[in-house]
Amino acid sequence: MRTIVVGGGVVGVTTAYYLFKEGHEVVVVDKASKVGAEATAVNAGLIAPGHCFAWASPAAPKMLVKSLFGEKTSIRVKPTLNPRFLWWGLQFMRECTTERAAINTLAKMHLCDYSQTKLDEIALAEGIDYQGVDKGLLYLYRDAAELELGMGKMKLLTDNGQKLEQLDMKGLAAVDPAFGNATVQLAGAIHAPNDGSGNSELFTRKLTELLISKGVEFKLGVTAKSFVADGDRITGLQTDQGLMTADNYVLAMGVWSPKLSRTVGQDLPVYPAKGFSMTFDIKDKSKAPELGGVDEKTLVAWSPMGDQLRMSSTAQFSGFDRSHKPEDFAAIRSTAKELWPDAADWDGGSMTAGLRPMTPDGPPIIGKGKKHKNLFYNTGHGHMGWTMASGSSAAIVDIIAGRTPEIEMDPFVVRTYRK
Ligand SMILES: Cc1cc2nc3c(=O)[nH]c(=O)nc-3n(C[C@H](O)[C@H](O)[C@H](O)COP(=O)(O)OP(=O)(O)OC[C@H]3O[C@@H](n4cnc5c(N)ncnc54)[C@H](O)[C@@H]3O)c2cc1C
């Protein structure tokens, strides 16, 4: 059985891994000259069931309106009449009820939990060191009232099995001493002891090296242009370097997935949310954070990655534009300076931006195409794709193999909009 995976980010490469384990002849196609070159390369590194809240929530519409009036909110919208964004935005608004937000969050949480187990299994079985840190994550609060509110919000997760504990400043310093040097008032944190962090680009690269050594083919620098269909089957993938054929096709192109799926009549509600990302060399490890986390005031996220610290911020709906200006990184630099003043040269660091493949409701799209029997989808993982990749890929390969996945798949059905 020959299967082409289109997209060589963390989602495509983990899909290729499970297909290979299933005995398929696998070909991965990616337009970039290396795997994991897009969102996979820039993310904050959090492996975080405790951070799985759907963005579409009762609080979101107010934030979006404020952003339209120029406020620097954590989710921002660049005013546009782009019909695709307007359609996506309408669907997002529809999901902003308490009930829908809870349903979407719990669907993501179950996938995150499952995926974490799968990631651990791959890393252990294949001996992949991806700069993983498994001491948990910290959700940091500067204000005691906000910390209480944060614990209240987390009740949805704790009621459904997540382990989360409230830490005062003494407790925080015991879990991660780096916060003892902060120059701002902190109230404490919520510690998610089962969350973790790691370098998804490194993981993707090492898994690719392993797969290549086993005979999996990676066609890099090849751009997929369209699928070719005959009735209810896909008969080929048209690329800038000719037609490629296989028995099955898996679409895992992150934010670019709808462009390819539309060539065979399947629209997908995936729209890019730009985020800014910096990587700093740590100059004094004793003063740098040992655990990853999120500052719940500035919504800056961070993860230690070996001798470096990755930090990311902001969700900006501005289409496929990945450009950035130095001022886009101000929140990252100021958060770092306030939390760990002497750990690194916070005026240095590398700057980049990436695109999160967001669905309006939050759950990714994982399943068999409705129109074509041999076209499968693994895309739309939004702000949690590193966390959800291994589980999503195990599930899609179960579906390809005709098995029932180990988790409930209804929330991830292939859809143009949620009915
Ligand atoms: C700033 C930021 C912070 C984030 N933080 C976290 C985090 O802390 N934790 C977490 O779990 N997730 C996080 N994410 C989300 C996560 O990075 C993504 O959900 C995940 O990387 C998506 O993986 P992917 O493989 O689907 O997409 P991508 O990594 O974007 O890969 C898509 C691939 O498709 C290829 N491609 C595109 N078009 C074509 C074409 N025409 N032909 C061939 N190939 C093509 C691209 O070259 C690319 O390699 C973050 C994302 C961003 C941007």
For this entry, give a set of tags.
six-stranded mixed beta sheet, 419 residues, binds flavin-adenine dinucleotide, 32% helix
- Might you state the CATH topology name of the domain at 2-41 and 201-270 and 362-412? FAD/NAD(P)-binding domain
Q: What is the CATH level 1 assignment of the domain at 2-41 and 201-270 and 362-412?
A: Alpha Beta
Distance between the termini: 34 Å
Q: Which molecules are bound in this entry?
A: flavin-adenine dinucleotide
**What structural category characterises the helix and strand content?**
alpha/beta
On the 0-100 scale, what is the average pLDDT?
Answer: 96
- What is the overall silhouette? globular
Weakly predicted, low-confidence segments: none
Biggest sheet layout: 9 strands, mixed
Structure description:
Helices cover 32% and strands 25% of the residues. It is of the alpha/beta class and 419 residues long. It has a domain of 161 residues: FAD/NAD(P)-binding domain. The strands form four sheets. Strands 4, 5, 6, 7, 14, 15, 16, 17 and 18 form a nine-stranded mixed sheet that branches. Strand 1, helix 1 and strand 2 form a beta-alpha-beta unit. The longest helix is centred in the N-terminal third of the chain and has 29 residues. The structure holds flavin-adenine dinucleotide. Flavin-adenine dinucleotide binds next to helix 1, strand 2, helix 2, strand 14 and strand 18.
